[in-house]
Structure formats: C-alpha cells, structure tokens
Design brief:
Layout lengths: L2 H8 L1 H10 L3 H16 L3 E8 L4 E8 L10 E3 L3 H9 L3 E3 L21 E9 L2 E10 L7 H25 L19 E3 L1 E4 L2 E9 L8 H4 L7 H25 L9 H8 L4 H9 L4 H17 L4 H4 L2 H15 L13 E4 L4 H9 L4 E4 L7 H9 L3 E3 L13 E5 L4 E4 L3 H14 L5 H5 L11 E6 L5 H4 L7 E5 L1 H5 L7 H15 L4 E4 L27 H6 L1 H14 L5 E5 L5 H21 L8 E6 L2 H4 L2 H5 L4 E4 L1 H9 L17 H17 L2 E4 L10 H6 L4 E5 L3 H9 L3 H12 L4 H21 L2
Parallel strand pairs: 9-10, 10-11, 11-12, 15-16, 15-22, 16-17, 17-18, 18-19, 19-20, 20-21, 21-22
Antiparallel strand pairs: 1-2, 1-6, 2-3, 4-5, 5-6, 7-14, 8-12, 9-13, 13-14
Helix pairs in contact: 1-5, 3-5, 5-8, 7-9, 7-12, 7-13, 8-12, 9-10, 10-12, 13-14, 19-21, 21-22
Bound molecules: phosphoenolpyruvate and magnesium ion.
Length: about 750
C-alpha cells in the first residue's frame, strides 16, 4: 500500500479535524469526499447512502460532479455500477466505465468527463450502508493499491456514515410523558467484587430502561437568549472533542471516534438545527431543547433497530450536556467525572467512555464477576462491584456511596467513621512485594519453575507488566480493540496495534487469541440476529469461521506483525478437532497469500486452542496430537460444564470452580498435554485465585496466565508454595466427589499453606 494511502487510514486526527471544521453533517460528508479525492488523486469522489426501505441509493456528497446532483441522483440496488457494487458487496473497477454494460448514464452531472471508475461498497457485516466512488479522467486508471486503500477507508468510515444515515432520516415522531423516580433508602449491600479497588463519591445513574427526568426544566423561570444557546452548543462541542482526545491519549488501540454519535448530533441540522429554529420562532431555549429531545428520544426508542435504540443514551447524554452548559451549571453534572456510576446493561464501549471522563467507580446491577465488562474494568483500573439490586438505580444524584470492590461491599450514605476507616485502609494498602520477588522468574519454594504470563486486554495494560518479571503474554484478548471501537478495525489498524504489542514484548512469546465476540462481548456496531442464548450461539470461533473475511484480515494482521517475533495463534471456543483444523487451514491460506503478495510475515506460528468447552475435554487426548498447545479458559469451562451463566448474578452461587467435575476435567486436560509433550496453561480467572493455585500447580500445570494487576500476588503465592505439598493437596481434592468436602479441604489446606494473612488478601 502506498504510504500516502496508509497515512489516510491512520490519520484519525484528520477525521477529527473534519468533524471540528464541519458545521453540519452535509458539510462533514463533503469534507470526507474532498479528503479521499485528495489522497487517491481522483478528479471525482462521491458518497451515496443506501435506504433499505425503498432499496435506493442517493448521492449525498460529491467533489467533481455538479453540486446540484446531490440528492438528485438516485439508483436502485443493483442499478448501474454503483448499485451493482452494493448489491454484490464488491468493488467495481473499470478503465472505462461506459464500456461496462451495467453502466447507467445520468445526463447533466458531468460524469462523461471521467472514464476511470472505482466504486467500493460501504458495508458493516451484512448491513448495506452506501457506496464510495472515485473517478479520474481517461488513461489514469485505478490500481490494486487504490482498491485496497479505498476499501480500508470505507470500512473505517462505515460506522460514522451509518450514524449519519439514521440521523439524516429521523422517521416517525411520538410524544410521551416522563415518569417520576423515587430514591429508596438502602444502607449496606453485599455484592461481588468485579474489579478491585475502593471509591467514595456521589452516584450517577445510567439506566437504559428509564429516561432522565427533565421535567424540572419545563417549569423554570430562567430566560435564555439564542446567543446563549449557540454558546452552549459550542461549549458542548469542545467538551466532547476534549473527551475524544483523552480517550485517544489513554488508549492507543481505541483510536476511533468513541464520541462520534454525540458529535454528529451536535452538528445535525435536524437535531440542534431544529432546536434553533424553534428558538428563532420565539420558543424558550430550554423548552426548544427538550421538545426536540423528546422527539428524538421517542424516534430512537421506537426504532425496530437495536443499534438505533441503543443511541437513546447518547441523545439523552448530549441533551443533558447542552442544558447544563446553557444554564452554566457544573459542566460535569451530565457526565461521570469523579462519580460512581450505577449502571444496567453497560457495553464495554460505554465503560470506556466513562473511563475517559474519569469515573471513580461503578456498580453493575446485572452481570457477573467474569463478565467482560468486569474484565475491561480491571484493565481500566475502575473499581467495580456487581450487585443484583435494581433499587440502586433509583438513588438520587446527591446520594454518596462507598464501594469496597475488593470485597464487593456497597455502603449507601455511609457514616463518617466508615469513610475514615476506608481512607486509612487505602493509604496502608500499597503492599510492597520485594524487589527480588518481582524481578526474578517464578519458582516454588522447592525450586519448580512456574511460568507466569500476563493476560492483556488493552495496550495500556502493558505499563503494568513492564516492571515485573514475566514470561510473556499468555492471552491477548484481541476482541477488546474491536469492542471498544465504533467499527471493525481494518487489517492495517490491527497490524499497527499488534505490532506495538510484539515490539514491546521483544523476545517473549505473545499468544494472540483470535476474535472472541458474541456472548457478552457485543460489538455495538455489528448486530448478529437476536439470539435467545448468545453464549450458545454465534460466538467466538463460530463467528470467525462464518465471517471468513473478517477472520482472515485478523490472521493476516497477526502474521504480519509477528514477523521475526514469537507469536502463538490461539483459537477460542473450539468444540471439535474438525473446527480446529478448519481454523488452521485458514492460517495456511493467509500465509500463502501474504507470501504471494510479498508481505513480510511469520510463516510458522504455533497454533493451539482454548480448552473451554466440555466436548473437547472428552476428546482431549486426540486433540493433543493436533494442537501445539492448550490454554484452559476456566471462565467458560466452568460456565459450560456446570450450565451456569457466568454473567448472571442470580446463579453466581452455583458457579463453583472447585466443583469435582471441573477439578477432574483440569487434571485430564493437563495429563493429555503432558503426555503429548505440549504446553498446557491456565488463562481463566482460576489462575489468579489464591485458593486454587496450589491445586493447579499440584496437577502439573506449569504456566499461569493472569490479568496484569495480579502478577505480583500470583508470583508471591508461588514462591511460598512447595510443589510436593501442592501435589498431595491436589490428589486429596481429586479423591473427593462432593463440593462440601472439597470446600473443607481447600480451607484448611490453604490456611496452613499461606498462613491466615496471605489467605485473607
Ligand atoms: C476463559 O474463558 O477462561 C477465558 C480466559 O477467556 P474469556 O474470559 O475472555 O472468555
Ligand atoms: Mg473464554
């Protein structure tokens, strides 16, 4: 790819600038076509948006064609080269467009001057969004490189353009009145620890089932001018742009416009523009803002598309911000800064947005400890408690809450002495592990080497592991860059992120777990059809194998980044040997393609599987003959073996890692690996649980991969453990068939092994 093309893809700041400089959505689209035309050296660049209900493409922005063709040129799906490109979801590239029998001549738009033609579809998964077209005069035909670059640009812009599409055609309007909510008096709640830490602050409620109460503003005596309204919009815009910048600074792998929907709404002539029109007609600014807000809220809420329904939160959030800025209230009242969020049904990208706003902590009223929102919270350093108490969503914003996310406790409006004792505890907490422990390879007290690797979710986790001796990355959850973004990262973007990771790890191995989406890892921008049982549905490797293009892009990016580095490719949720071989076949296909295309790449990565589905445990000995390594994903293995949803707080008591069926499965998997001479590691949460480490080591596991924050604790536990004693302990546990008996043995053994102090950690 030409360097200029690559620059076009990476230059997210350029996209940001386009946003900043645009005064409306139309002008934003216009700036995109200008930018693309400039980068690919085209005389014409146009964007057509597709309307699914009448199956029609409409020209929405162009440089090069006559400007009055915008909104005038319309094509049916499959009609002309543009319609054909979208129908078949493939680029159409022609030296001379007119010579293609499908070409459709549109008189009066000046197209006849530009013969070289390239159209690429803008799609997201199976959703058709539109088409981007570039044209040049005769003789200057488009090359393979241009197609690659334009496709990557289209995929980069897809989510933003999709947002634009629905904001531009808002649909039906319905009015509805707001409901009152009453805070309930709660004192102490015992929840579960999702992400360790402590926080004390006012709450901010985020409940998708209920809207904020804005009715107070309808009766206000305050009067504002149109000038103040405009100033409030400007301030809001600046705040959103600052937030966006903060995300990008903090998280390199999220270099995507997290707040794009907010920014788009601010620039939208039918949203803020309609507010302005009402004010011009004499409506009070506050009332004008709210009238349009209610319209939009209801349109979005009543949309058949889940994707659009989820944007209700964005509309509400942006409205709060505009009102606060108009009333010159504390700018953060609408936001999360310094507060503890009480949330229901939060998406990882939403948690990320809260983190950009410096949220202090979070309480989840649904979800489980091993849910991926908890895992992300750990990476982001946000203390999080999970409590099945929807009443918490009724707390008013002046309620102060203290969360002890080490133990999972919530104190509502705590007494002063409770707060003081926590502040003291926080100061004392910086428990110091010895330099020797942190800087040397891990061994048990009787000398057995145990490899301690890190689980990585975001590149920002790297800073936690640089100072601590470790044996590489045992699990990189590659889906995190996917789920925190607004669109599928292109191959180039993935190559960029993976490249940073491997170069940071140097000669240590990095295990790339391929995309594991579905279940509770939903891509906000890509909806698979609604599933009754998403954890048993189109999740993980099943998604990858049925979306080969997305899968291959990822494998290619990993292989390219892994050139001259030690990389391991690991497939999640493998349920049969056949499935593993299919995935491996694709790896070989990618290696062959990259070779042909002349890309430097790693042509002999190790390939292995996550052992997390019971079906594979029953054929594990045969699997060990095929895979280069096993990594046991206990989080899912427990969920699937015991039929207990890992994200459902209501059945959390049944999620028992030391269930005899789990312990015996772990033993069988480890034995199979040892017998075939392949590495077996544990990368689920059991690997960092003090209660279970002796058992794991006792059955012969020599590689533990844990969330980066747990590295010191795990190294410390290992150093205090005798392998011999661990073996005896493991054998004793394996001889029991009742959970209660196992419970007892674990308690008495662990207290003896570590002493009460370490065990209490
Ligand atoms: C697991 O299932 O144990 C695992 C490590 O993967 P994840 O938690 O991402 O599903
Ligand atoms: Mg898993």
């Amino acid at each position: 790819m030409h360097t200029d093309h690559v620059k076009m893809l990476y230059d997210i700041s350029e996209l940001n600038n386009l946003f900043t400089e645009s005064i409306s959505i139309e002008s934003f689209l216009q700036k995109i076509v200008q930018m693309v035309a400039g980068h690919v050296n085209a005389d014409v660049c146009s964007i057509y948006l597709y309307n699914e209900s009448d199956k029609e493409l409409v020209l929405k922005a162009t440089v090069g064609l006559k400007s009055d063709s915008v909104n005038r040129v319309k094509l049916k799906l499959g009609e002309g080269l543009v319609g054909l490109s979208l129908l078949n979801r493939i680029p159409v590239c022609e030296k001379c467009a007119e010579e293609n029998p499908n070409f459709k001549f549109y008189p009066g738009i000046n197209e006849e001057f530009f013969k070289s033609f390239l159209a690429v579809p803008i799609v997201r998964g199976n959703i058709r969004i539109g088409v981007m077209v570039v044209q040049r005069s005769e003789g200057k035909e488009f090359a393979e490189q241009d197609i690659l670059a334009l496709r990557a640009t289209a995929s980069q812009l897809a989510s933003m353009i999709e947002n634009i599409k629905y904001i531009m055609s808002p649909g039906q309007k319905v009015y509805e009145s707001e409901e009152e909510t009453n805070p309930e008096d709660l004192k102490f709640i015992k929840g579960r620890a999702g992400s360790a830490g402590y926080a004390y602050s006012n709450v901010v409620i985020s409940n998708k089932d209920e809207s904020s109460d804005f009715t107070q503003y309808l009766n206000t005596e305050e009067h504002y001018t149109i000038k103040q309204f405009d100033a409030a919009l400007k301030t809001t815009e600046i705040q959103m742009e600052n937030l966006q910048e903060k995300v990008e600074e903090k998280l390199e792998d999220a270099a995507s416009l997290i707040f794009s929907a907010h920014l788009l709404m601010l620039k939208d002539t039918s949203f803020t523009g309609s507010m302005r029109k009402l004010i011009e007609k004499g409506e009070e600014p506050l009332k004008a803002i709210l009238r349009i807000y209610y319209d939009y809220r209801d349109i979005f809420r009543n949309s058949p598309s889940l994707l659009i329904r989820e944007k209700v939160q964005d509309v509400e959030d942006i409205t709060k911000r505009i009102i606060n800025n108009l009333m010159q209230k504390d700018a953060d009242v609408a936001g999360y800064s310094g507060r503890i969020a009480v949330v229901r049904d939060i998406l990882p990208s939403e948690l990320l947005a809260m983190s950009a706003e410096n949220i202090k902590g979070a309480i989840l009223v649904s979800g489980g400890v091993t849910s991926h929102v908890s895992i992300l919270a750990r990476s982001l350093g946000i203390p999080l408690v999970i409590a099945d108490k929807p009443e918490l969503l009724k707390l008013s914003s002046d309620t102060k809450v203290l969360i002890d996310a080490d133990l999972g406790n919530i104190y509502v409006n705590p007494a002063e002495d409770i707060v003081e004792s926590f502040e003291r505890k926080k100061k004392d907490k910086g428990k110091i592990y010895s330099h020797e422990l942190l800087s040397s390879p891990s061994r048990t007290s009787d000398g057995k080497r145990i490899y301690v690797m890190a689980n990585l979710n975001l590149l920002s986790d790297l800073k936690n592991i640089r100072q601590i001796n470790n044996d590489g990355i045992g699990l990189y959850r590659t889906e995190f860059p996917f789920i925190i973004r607004n669109n599928f990262p292109s191959e180039e973007e993935q190559f960029f992120i993976y490249g940073k990771l491997v170069s940071d790890m140097g000669d240590k191995p990095v295990t790339f777990r391929t995309l594991d989406i579905g279940g509770d890892k939903i891509l906000s921008y890509y909806r698979i059809d609604k599933e009754e049982n998403p954890f048993l549905g189109m999740r993980s490797i099943r998604f990858s194998l049925s979306h080969r293009e997305i899968f291959k892009q990822q494998i290619r990016a990993i292989l390219r980044a892994g050139y001259e580095y030690r990389i391991k490719l690991m497939f999640p949720m493998i349920s049969s040997i056949d499935e593993f071989l299919l995935a491996k076949e694709l790896v070989h296909e990618c290696i062959a393609e990259l070779g042909k295309e002349g890309f430097e790449h790693n042509s002999s990565p190790e390939t292995g599987i996550m052992v997390e589905i019971p079906s594979i445990v029953n054929i594990i000995e045969a699997m060990a003959e095929e895979a280069d390594f096993f990594s046991i994903g206990t989080n899912d293995l427990i969920q699937y073996t015991l039929a207990v949803d890992r994200t459902n707080e209501k059945v959390a008591d049944l999620y028992i890692p030391h269930h005899p069926a789990i312990l015996k499965s772990l033993k069988r998997i480890t034995d199979a690996g040892i017998k075939s001479g392949i590495d077996v590691s544990i990368c689920g949460d059991m690997a960092s649980d003090v209660r279970y480490i002796p058992f794991l080591i006792g059955i012969g596991i020599s590689v533990l991969s844990v969330d980066s924050g747990y590295l010191p604790k795990v190294k410390s536990v290992i150093s205090k453990l005798s392998f011999k004693e661990a073996e005896t302990f493991a054998n004793e546990l394996l001889s029991k068939n009742r959970i209660s008996e196992i419970d007892e043995v674990i308690k008495s053994h662990n207290t003896r092994l570590y002493g009460s102090e370490l065990f209490a950690e």
